[in-house]
Write a structure and sequence with these properties.
CATH topology of the largest domain: Creatine Amidinohydrolase
Distance between the termini: 50 Å
Number of domains: 2
Low-confidence stretches: none
Number of helices: 10
Strand content: 15-25%
Order of helices and strands: HEHEEEHEHEHHEHEEEEEHHEEEEEEEH
Radius of gyration: 24 Å
CATH class of the largest domain: Alpha Beta
CATH superfamily of the largest domain: Creatinase/methionine aminopeptidase superfamily
CATH architecture of the largest domain: Alpha-Beta Complex
Helix content: 25-40%
Strand order of the largest sheet: 4-3-2-1-5-6
């Protein structure tokens, strides 16, 4: 349900004159969600909905679909020819200078950029400065309430215990003189989730040896790897409780099939763990100091550790992503590699911290989740793995 008061409060907080929502054929799902239209079938004509920082909103809809925004407050203008559309947009924006839209400059943020360049040009031609709605979107898309935080903690218990299932199956097979396939471990984790009433959009990653060097490797039955004595294994898993509004827990841990982990694996893992901890510290320090923190800064803090260790070119993805009802949520990512994410790291949001170093022979990643509460407290969930687990010694 659309919350006009909350939207206007956020506009004033960010010093904006208004938020211009625009959609064509359902292409702007972010706008539709904020407006409470995401469960309604999109129409075939363009609409605009302008919410000023103060005062009454205004609608601009096509004559064929004149009821498209009837569930929303505000006065309505109906257009037919394109000339009336352009004049209607100018009227919506009269007296407003800094206006938010689902836009990001250049190629800086494809997660927010949902409005086409021509529409942005039209709005600028009306004399308005178009500002990215990225931080506004976060407040309505990415912030958690207390029930979601509790559901995250509930999911965390099961995702952590899933590692006992995975390592236990590997140890059982290997100690019996056999091997186990990646997809068998994957299936055991999924069964564990189902038994504990967790759901997920896709199965976990179980990657042995060279497969662990591919950050997005997906085991496929018949082409998956065999795990046996002396193998290095990465397990990346994500799930949420099967309830409305539930949010994900998303973790990665490393194991070695043996009693003693070889030094080459421990050395790389130690660097990755230091990078992880540096990124977490960056978040904590910013909130303790009361200063604004942007996503790219967290990436830089962790990436610097790997760069200084001489492995920067082997760290080939961002250090973290927003987590919400989708495992990759619509809040700020901790990213200064794939994008320069200028969005603020807001209170009541959650994100992964997952630095990695990836070679052809093997790859290492350590992933935890970080939640910033309403008071600025920083909570790390998922457990901080301090070294590669010797799977046989732990069994």
């Amino acid at each position: 349900m659309f919350d006009l008061e909350a939207v206007q409060r956020s506009l004033r907080e960010f010093g904006l004159d208004g938020w211009l929502f625009y959609d064509f054929r359902g292409g702007n799902i972010l706008a539709r969600r904020v407006l409470g239209l995401d469960q309604k079938a999109p129409g075939s004509r363009r609409f605009f909905y302008f919410v000023p920082a103060q005062g009454e909103p205004a609608k601009l809809v096509h004559r064929i679909e004149s009821g498209a925004l009837d569930e929303l407050p505000g006065k309505k203008t109906v257009y037919l020819p394109w000339q009336e559309l352009e004049a209607g947009v100018a009227q919506l924006l009269r007296g407003s200078w800094r206006v938010a839209m689902e836009y990001a400059p250049g190629v800086s943020n494809p997660y927010v950029s949902r409005v086409d360049a021509g529409t942005i040009e039209l709005v600028r031609g009306c004399g308005a400065e178009v500002v990215s709605s990225g931080d506004l979107i976060q407040q309505f898309e990415a912030t958690w309430d207390e029930s979601q935080w509790q559901m995250h903690l509930e999911a965390e218990k099961v995702t952590i215990s899933a590692y006992d299932v995975a390592w236990g199956l590997i140890a059982e097979r290997v100690l019996a003189g056999a091997t186990v396939r990646e997809t068998e471990v994957q299936s055991a984790i999924m069964d564990h989730f189902h038994r504990h009433e967790l759901t997920t959009y896709s199965p976990p990653i179980v990657a042995v040896g060279p497969h662990s060097g591919d950050p997005h490797y997906e085991p496929v039955a018949g082409r998956d790897g065999l795990i046996g004595q002396g193998d290095f294994v990465l397990v990346d898993l994500w799930a949420k409780v099967d309830k409305p509004k539930a949010v994900y827990s998303d973790l990665t841990r490393m194991g070695f099939v043996g009693d003693v982990v070889p030094a080459k694996y421990e050395e790389i893992f130690a660097i990755v763990a230091r990078a992880r901890d540096a990124a977490i510290a960056c978040v904590g320090e910013a909130y303790r100091a009361g200063r604004p923190l942007r996503g790219w800064e967290v990436d830089v803090a962790g990436r610097r550790v790997i760069d200084l260790a001489g492995y920067g070119r082997y760290f080939i993805h961002r250090i973290g992503h927003n987590i919400g009802q989708e495992v990759h949520g619509n809040g700020a990512n901790m990213d200064d590699l794939e994008t320069h994410d200028e969005r603020l790291v807001l209170r009541r949001t959650c994100f992964s911290i997952e630095p990695g170093i990836y070679f052809d022979e093997f790859g290492v990643r350590s992933e935890v989740n970080v939640f910033v509460d309403a008071n600025g407290g920083v909570h790390v969930t998922g457990g901080l793995q301090t070294s590669v687990l010797p799977i046989l010694a732990a069994s």
